[in-house]
Please model this.
Amino acid sequence: MTVQEQDILVRVEGLKVHFPITQGIIFQRQIGAVQAVDGLDFAIRRGETLGLVGESGCGKSTTGRAILQLYRPTAGNVYFEGENLCQVKGEKLRAMRRRMQMIFQDPYASLNPRMTIGSIIGEPLEVHGLASGAEVKERVAELLEVVGLNSYFINRYPHEFSGGQRQRVGIARAVAVNPDFIVCDEPVSALDVSIQAQIINLLEDLQARYNLTYLFIAHDLSVVRHISDRVAVMYLGKIVELTDRAELYEKPLHPYTQALLSAVPIPDPEIEERRRRIILTGDVPDPSHPPKGCHFSTRCPVMIPGTCDAQEPEFKDAGGNHWVACFRVS
Model:
């Protein structure tokens, strides 16, 4: 992709994550594999937010975890500042993880209920040797203020907070070690709409303050439009379209992207009444047995028989750094 190499923080090449399907109780043997992520190529620039959108089960969260090596990829490479993370292990990987953090989707499940808020946020500081003793408490109090929580909450437990407050704690934990890159795994999907806006604004403020780079995973296209610089659309383990935010929302090229955008409500009733909805038929195919050719061919309203269901489309630049994988796009 036509991006200056020195501007790239994360580069993903041919990333695949397949989960084995086994049979048998004592002597297990593999009888198949769930192809959660099936060959991704993209880059994330320093200081930008790349939105990753798609239906549930398309492999978005698995992609984020594979980049951070929480899931070891089946194939492919992930480069962080030129270092191939897939070849790094042990102490060196642990040291590099200080620069790569994650904000999890569920603020109820991602915090240890037996630990105080101070211990949760302070733990990464101690693990990476960034602070100790009174310094930890001082830094935690500072982080609580940064994410909009009172520093007096330091000795409280997660069950004493609302969902939005817990997500702020999760964000404070992520930025505690001064990372360069954060994977935001649907950080607002479990929150009320009014709280979602507050968390999005907080993430934008922190990005400006600490020069952070985000991979923002979501299925809500309106949220992604607000926070992202570029947007990648994912379907059944593959990226089908990738371009700048304005370009994607004004001129979507892939039929799947067009269908997703047609479902986003518009607050103007006259425009809403005139526009055409694209209703996709059928369900998302089983990722353990994806369709031949284009993965979207079984649901595509403009599928070309004998081509789309037989060959895999090339992921190529359609002009203006607008990448798409579709035979209908010349």
Summary: Residues 5-324 form a domain with the Rossmann fold fold (CATH 3.40.50.300). The mean pLDDT is 90. DSSP finds ten helices and twelve strands in the chain. The CA atoms of residues 318 and 324 lie 7 Å apart.
